[in-house]
Amino acid sequence: MKNTRLKRLTNLLFILSLSTLLLGVGFRLGQLSTNNNFVTSHPYGLINLDKDKEKATQLDFSLFWDVWEKISDKFVARDKINYTKMYYGAIKGMVSSLDDPYTVFLTPDENKMSKDDLVGLFEGIGTQLGLKNGEIVIIAPLKKSPAEAAGLKAGDIVKKVDGHSAVNWTLYEAVSKIRGKRGTKVSLTLYRIEKEFTVDIIREEIKVPSVEIEFEKDVAILRLTRFGEDTNDLWDSAINEIASKWHSGQIRAMILDLRDNPGGYLDSSVYIASEFISEGKLVVKQEYYNGQSENHLVKHQGKLLDIPLIILINKGSASASEIVAGTLRDHKRAKLIGETTFGKGSIQEAIDLKQGAGLHVTIAKWILPNGDWINSKGVTPNIKVGNPDDENNTITRDTDLQLERATSEVEKLKLNK
């Protein structure tokens, strides 16, 4: 139990979304990259030894320090010189050279921000952000958030924030610019379907429960908004209620809504998928850069192993939510309805560094039970259904075509049960 909890705290699945946060195993990649390096007595030299210590290369750091000193001595706008910002910027540049949008260095403020996402409490506009094709995109506006009220939609591309171009921004740069104290305003320039427009949004305190449940007649509808720190406990409470009604005959089916769920903890996705499939079955497989792999199997007795199940997905469903949807589809345990998901198939380890900084490192990719790696292509639903293109983002229960199709398919499942 202790080891499982430790893994859960130190590994993340990112969609980056922001969140965009995924879990991996305790694979000490950070140690592997630092234990084999040492700085020589010369302040401008760095010796790198490979792991077999048979070869050595000299990397001359004098150019770096030369530029640092020239800026310090000659840059005309003295008030703009911020040595901490230069220091962090140099590290960010090193990490960004890897050309992996999910491997990122986080300043102390950014690291705290990423952890706040998993708790579900922050101040901002209430939207999940992601990186796709090098651009900042809206993964999904949160329900009842300022972003939803302003009409933001999944797939919107963020072009500018407060008039500043978002070109070449990292995810965390975008998040840091968009978030802010409640009551303040942020202006977003967005691109949607060959149209660019600007919208002003007032920030608020955002508190998002990760699990919401309701009942329609004899069907349980459970909405899962993220795989965060509180998710498993809230999930257990909701599932106990659903299981009680299921076993007493009060309900006859369930709809699991994973739409606009950007992901979160890998352990949580395994835990939730295990509710519906029997012990010992494969949930997801991790494959590392060195060819090693790790299988995540069902480890506890699920309470809803035979309830008729429909899962709703859309292009805002990512990472951990794709694992749950894809796994239950592969085991023929659920029918998927909606749109093809985001397509986030890699795993990051979250490492806390000195001074409160952090590093998220892509350490592996994850594979579904049937062997699919869904990176960039997503999970395809069994039944494709899109909701109407609503400029005002005011889809209600009556106009939600995906949920309506799910309820009709549930009726078929109940008849066949």
TrEMBL record:
The keyword Hydrolase applies. Gene3D superfamilies: 2-enoyl-CoA Hydratase, Chain A, domain 1, 2.30.42.10, 3.30.750.44. GO terms for biological process: proteolysis; signal transduction. Keywords: Hydrolase, Protease, Serine protease. Residues 118-194 form the PDZ domain. Signal peptide: none annotated. GO terms for molecular function: endopeptidase activity; serine-type peptidase activity. One of its GO terms (cellular component) is outer membrane-bounded periplasmic space. The keyword 4Fe-4S does not apply. SMART domains: PDZ, TSPc. Belongs to the peptidase S41A family. This is PDZ domain-containing protein. It comes from Candidatus Roizmanbacteria bacterium RIFCSPLOWO2_02_FULL_36_11.
